[in-house]
Amino acid sequence: LIAFFQPKRLAGKKLLITAGPTFEPIDPVRGLTNLSSGKMGFALARAAAEAGAEVTLVAGPVHLPTPRGVRRIDVQTAQQMFDAVLPRAAQQDVFVATAAVADWRPATLAEHKIKKQPGDAGPPSFALTENPDILAGVAKLGSRPFCVGFAAESQDLARHARQKLERKKVDLIVGNIGAATFGRDDNALLLVDAAGERELPRNDKLTLARELIAEIATRLATP
Ligand code: CTP
Ligand code: CA
């Protein structure tokens, strides 16, 4: 019922959201990933759909149900996430990058499982190569949506968030206040944009998602 009575502040708007971790394979049985649960991105997709938006959710490997009314595209790697997002981005009103995209991937993918070497060959070493920056890629598009990034920092949140706002040339950066947000059901957020800073105090992720969607709707209405 609460969902039904959310104001339809995003009616007629299209939102594209990335969520979860990415998984970068090393060989057929191993890979690089991180502890992102996808909960914040899925909560935002739900809150945006409640607000009347047409929502596309590009999700890395997570174990979460698809929110009602949301179109979901599952991907594994950062490159696949990039390939799913970029062709759709110009048609969107808003892009929200909540995904914890792996910054690097193994430079080569072993066709077969890497075996321990006998003797003193030691462990294998891996060369890494940088993944494309999905958020910066969308922000660079000619006709681009309102772009929102997330910043996971372990120190100096406000300073790093503002640096990301400027470096990626996005409209809003949302920082997680306090460590260890990954996997938790609650969070506290710091909103950083050209106008200043604003804190959304600690709450469950769905409540915060609804507050953040309201903040985004306000910014869309008053550009
Ligand atoms: N992001 C992205 N594609 C990447 C890396 C990050 O879209 N390859 C997005 C994230 O979804 C997030 C924002 O960029 O919205 C910031 O991600 P973060 O990891 O904090 O920033 P980086 O630029 O990767 O810098 P660093 O990890 O060194 O802090
Ligand atoms: Ca990163």
From TrEMBL:
EC number: 4.1.1.36, 6.3.2.5
Keywords carried by this UniProt record: Decarboxylase, Flavoprotein, FMN, Ligase, Lyase, Magnesium, Metal-binding, Multifunctional enzyme
Domain of life (superkingdom): Bacteria
Presence of keyword Magnesium: yes
GO molecular function: phosphopantothenate--cysteine ligase activity; phosphopantothenoylcysteine decarboxylase activity
Coiled-coil parts of chain: none
Note accompanying the cofactor annotation: Binds 1 FMN per subunit.
Binding-site residues for CTP, renumbered to this chain: D103, K113, P132, D133, I134, L135, F150, K164, K168
Catalytic reaction list: (R)-4'-phosphopantothenate + L-cysteine + CTP = N-[(R)-4-phosphopantothenoyl]-L-cysteine + CMP + diphosphate + H(+); N-[(R)-4-phosphopantothenoyl]-L-cysteine + H(+) = (R)-4'-phosphopantetheine + CO2
Record region (Phosphopantothenate--cysteine ligase): 15-223
Record domain DNA/pantothenate metabolism flavoprotein C-terminal: where: 10-218
Pathway: Cofactor biosynthesis; coenzyme A biosynthesis; CoA from (R)-pantothenate: step 3/5; Cofactor biosynthesis; coenzyme A biosynthesis; CoA from (R)-pantothenate: step 2/5
Cofactor(s) demanded: Mg(2+); FMN
Entry's family note: In the C-terminal section; belongs to the PPC synthetase family. In the N-terminal section; belongs to the HFCD (homo-oligomeric flavin containing Cys decarboxylase) superfamily.
Described function: Catalyzes two sequential steps in the biosynthesis of coenzyme A. In the first step cysteine is conjugated to 4'-phosphopantothenate to form 4-phosphopantothenoylcysteine. In the second step the latter compound is decarboxylated to form 4'-phosphopantotheine. Catalyzes two steps in the biosynthesis of coenzyme A. In the first step cysteine is conjugated to 4'-phosphopantothenate to form 4-phosphopantothenoylcysteine, in the latter compound is decarboxylated to form 4'-phosphopantotheine.
Protein name from the UniProt record: Coenzyme A biosynthesis bifunctional protein CoaBC
Biological source species: Roseateles agri
Phylogenetic lineage: Bacteria, Pseudomonadati, Pseudomonadota, Betaproteobacteria, Burkholderiales
